[in-house]
Amino acid sequence: MHHLRFRQVHLDFHTSGLIPGIGSEFDKRQFQEALKVGHVNSITVFSKCHHGWSYHPTKVGRMHPHLKFDLLARQIDACREIGVRCPIYLSAGLDELAAFAHPTWVVKRKDGVNWKPLEVDWFGRILRFNSPYLDYLCAQIREVVERWPDNDGIFLDIIGTQRDYSDDALQEMKRAGYNPELDADVQRYAEDVLYRYFRAANAAVKSVRKDTPVFHNSGHISLGARKALAFNSHLELESLPTGGWGYDHFPMSARYAITQKWDFLGMTGKFHNTWGEFGGFKRPAALRYECSAMLAYGAKCSIGDQLHPNGEMNRDTYELIGAAYAEVERKEPWCDYVKPVARIALVSCEVNQERWRGGHAQSALADEGVSRMLLELHQPFLMLDEHASWAGFDVVVLPDKFVMTPAKAAKTKAFLARGGRILAAGTALLDEAHASFAVDPGAKLLGRSANDPDYLLATTLTPEVPVKSAIVIAGGAYVIKPTTARVLAERRESYFNRTWEHYCSHQHAPDAPGAVSPAAVLGKQIAYFAHDIFTQYRASGQPLYRDFVNAALHRLLDDKLPVATNLPTTARVNVLEQPKERRYVAHVLYAPTAVRGTFAGKNVEIIEDLIPLRNTEVALQLPRKVKSARLVPEGSELAFTQAEGVVAFTIPEFTSHQMVELAY
Known about the structure:
Elements: E1 7-12, H1 28-37, E2 42-48, E3 53-54, E4 62-63, H2 71-81, E5 88-91, H3 96-101, H4 133-147, E6 154-157, H5 167-175, H6 183-205, E7 214-216, H7 226-229, E8 235-238, H8 249-257, E9 264-269, H9 284-296, E10 300-306, H10 315-331, E11 339-340, E12 344-347, H11 365-376, E13 381-384, E14 395-398, H12 406-417, E15 421-425, E16 443-448, E17 454-457, E18 471-473, E19 478-482, E20 486-493, E21 520-522, E22 526-529, H13 533-540, H14 543-556, E23 563-565, E24 572-578, E25 583-590, E26 594-599, E27 602-606, E28 613-621, E29 628-632, E30 640-643, E31 646-654, E32 656-663
Parallel strand pairs: 1-2, 1-10, 2-5, 3-4, 5-6, 6-7, 8-9, 9-10, 12-13, 12-14, 14-15, 15-22
Antiparallel strand pairs: 11-24, 16-19, 17-18, 17-20, 20-21, 21-22, 23-28, 24-25, 25-32, 26-27, 28-31, 29-32, 30-31
């Protein structure tokens, strides 16, 4: 397994052939000075960019027409002089030179179009790995590893499944027994092509040195796609918060990555929005927080930059990066070789997880709803794929779109037999036909309500819900009748659904008097919500839905949640363990976000002001007896109490990120 360094830069260099003077201002000393100012100890540099140009002499591809020297070699030499690693980047899925020279190498969409010639969209010109392009790409890779046999790794970009309807692909599908008229068959063929690429590319990468690190980037780590992930030596979690991913994507992705065997890093950008934004800069506060969050969730750090075509490193950028990385450097001893400490598991509701879901694919809304609730409730959790064991967890959350197959039902019942607890919603406990409960929550399924929206009503079992009147929720509910379970939340229906004949006010009819079937039930080991409460939380952001789920967790865990704190809901808590050092490290994060403008059709959240928090109280359920507590890296001792497995302490003041070392 490849062990990563903490302070990496991903130095994009996608440079048009129309721009003159490529690398004309490159200076080894200036390049090295920028890395030193930035506290950078690894930087990914370019062999070939999306435009298709190479930045070194090549017998396979074409060197940029306005580059007069071997830029990549000089960058590598500069890095090695000062002990900085330099993985080498090759664009794999995009190559404009190859696309224009060989149109038949480009993926053809179902409508028969390769690309729209007057649109500036190189993602419309994805190269086919089921064409001679794959041989061309592998020859480029071999040329690089033969030139630099002691390289620090190969980064291959824009990797994914492509539904290709080119003539060659149609014929190959038919020979393989696939029906090109069926989308599912075309997708399966696309998977075959992807694995053809993985095998060929890895053979090229390792043709000189078998232990050469490699990463195939897709912009998102596909949950459960272990066969595909196994072609990597490590994972890089591309997640630029202001570039479309948002601030809640990385924590969710990291909580899955840390369950896997590979070292991994988080990848943000120095840009205000996303890649290729020349003249775009984040506030230092944002990078400080983003890098701290990477550490808090067990990741190494990578910050994206784009080198100016003239080859000169931007001083402002590396001062910006340095402000974050100087902090990371001080914290590294408490952040390496870590294991997660979590008693709650979120089992993804995505199905067929073996398939590669790259690109900017987001997780299911139900998964995201659970994740956001747990983050805001400050409860550490792990994201599990459908293959993972549930051993060691107190509570397993099954989101409202979860598909309960017979195998999963058996797994759930075995978990309950061992004393585990289940928090579920919607379809999660139903059989695949949604005709009855496959796992009994202490209630009988009677059917599906036609009422939408309807209303949640708090009970004595949900004191955490501050509103005692009816609370609207969309999406409809399953009709259930308690048998052995207690009613956790009541349900009210509206007077009628809104139609052209029946409507009231601006949105929907109010709640009608009279009891109907419950909205949620609670047994000794299971809490079940009849609505898609997680999906609805992701869709509407109504905090009262989270209050109901919080109440369910409290009842399931006898009010002994893994974390208790007075932090605001926008703060984050995570706990990691360093077994070799015999210590836990509790991470506390806080930075307020503000919406400023839009990018790619989404609101842009920025972090600009880091507000100190005072007298932060934290109580952690931990399996080992703690013998000392101190704030790190500062080293100051921290008073704490310990009783019945709960370690409690108060952080006098912190800004953005504080680590607390709990030695055992």
